[in-house]
Amino acid sequence: MLDYLQRILNARVYDVAIESPLDLAAKLSTRLGNQVWLKREDMQPVHSFKLRGAYNKMARLSKEELARGVVCSSAGNHAQGVALSARELGCQAHIVMPVTTPELKSDAVLALGGNVILHGDSYSEAYTHAMELQERHQYVFVHPFDDPDVIAGQGTIGMEILRQHQRPIHAVFVAIGGGGLISGVASYVKAVRPDIKVIGVQMVDSDAMIQSTQAGYPIELKEVGLFSDGTAVKMVGKETLRLTSALVDDFVKVDTDAVCAAIKDAFEETRSILEPSGAMSIAGMKQYVAEHDIHDEVLVAITCGANMNFDRLRFVAERADVGDEREALFAVTIPEERGSFKLLCETMGQRSVTEFSYRLGDEREAHVLVGLAIRDRSEVPEISESLSAKGFVALDLVDDELAKQHLRYMVGGRSGASGNERLYRFEFPERPGALMRFLSQMHPSWNISLFHYRNQGADYGRILVGIQVPDEDLAVFREFIGTLGYRCTDETDNPVYDRFLR
């Protein structure tokens, strides 16, 4: 530790990096019953901590080494750190990135003057190719985590935390990919304030460091999850494993939904959008507090990156409430008879509906996909019991990945029982009870044969409805549509409806 303490104290990072703020997270503090601080590495010039280690390594290269150029492998953030450092130091940087790297990150590397080479589906495959280039062209390899100078550069984050918060700290939560960040932070914290716990956070599908510490040697994973691309490492380094095994107090594994919820938490606190790896520390902290019943302590989470592709936000928004246990998802079976649909809505009471998908397909029973806003997971059994009391069969889908990733967008299809169906799109003010008021105005002799609704958090809700109206009732039906007061569009003659739903 003394060797690394000296390295960290003498690290050259501030030519390119800032001393990032340590911000109090007021809302999270109240919710968790602890004082929560966020170490804002997402505010670095490349929106990630990685430039600290990259620059500290490259600033120590000789003129001859810089003239040969450098090469590295990275899922994105280390690449930007190397590219920025190369620009500052006047050398050429060759960056090997997995083909799965978000375009935002590869474009950022190009903008900084780096030579981007896309290769492989994971960091490990990109690493192998970078090593081949290093040997072929005699480039200097800048490792993203398993290098003492890189580790020391990341360790300056721990130095800043202790300088910025000199009062007691219970624990610091750190995301782990290859282990460079937690190795550096733990090396400083344990040398100066050994009473502070250092807690590592990994994804459940990318837990190479946890498996390796348990085994006592580096374990290579066959596959890694790609949602948190910044920590998708199949095999950790020997040096980072040595330091992590010796210095880290505990580990937490988090899933995709928990990280999505943490991204939302961070946005509500800071109005910044973290990437998945950047929010892992928050997700781990929340889980650790719940599992260990922590109260009235000072907790620090390092928000280590904010290079998020905009298109990924739709997925994050969909999964955030599930991850925070604020949405329940059910498959409900109801009798296919008039009044069942309305009774189902009445049974759900005043809970806000987040999703409702239904398609007529059987004369005896119907299957409805229902999403409901909840305060926490404890409400789910209560909802199931109330549905059962009315004779409905409800299947809890909140932990079903097939349902969450695919089924909820695929409910529907063609129906041979949808004669005399008219298809309409409606927009109505989005407020509690609006969906029930819409349904209550329907004429009892008109059967709802298709229904899709998804709350998108906007001021207006959007519904797609199929209604079976006999030919002799068309005039009355059109009059009814005109009196609803909702903006609507007749889609009955839309060719998409004809091809996919009729």
Automatic annotation (TrEMBL):
InterPro entries: ACT-like_dom_sf (IPR045865), Ser/Thr_Dehydratase (IPR050147), Ser/Thr_deHydtase_PyrdxlP-BS (IPR000634), TD_ACT-like (IPR001721), TD_ACT-like_sf (IPR038110), Thr_deHydtase_biosynth (IPR005787), TrpB-like_PALP (IPR001926), TrpB-like_PALP_sf (IPR036052). It catalyses: L-threonine = 2-oxobutanoate + NH4(+). It holds the Pfam family Thr_dehydrat_C. Pathway: Amino-acid biosynthesis; L-isoleucine biosynthesis; 2-oxobutanoate from L-threonine: step 1/1. Its cofactor is pyridoxal 5'-phosphate. Coiled coil: none annotated. Homotetramer. Catalyzes the anaerobic formation of alpha-ketobutyrate and ammonia from threonine in a two-step reaction. The first step involved a dehydration of threonine and a production of enamine intermediates (aminocrotonate), which tautomerizes to its imine form (iminobutyrate). Both intermediates are unstable and short-lived. The second step is the nonenzymatic hydrolysis of the enamine/imine intermediates to form 2-ketobutyrate and free ammonia. In the low water environment of the cell, the second step is accelerated by RidA. This is L-threonine dehydratase. The gene is ilvA.
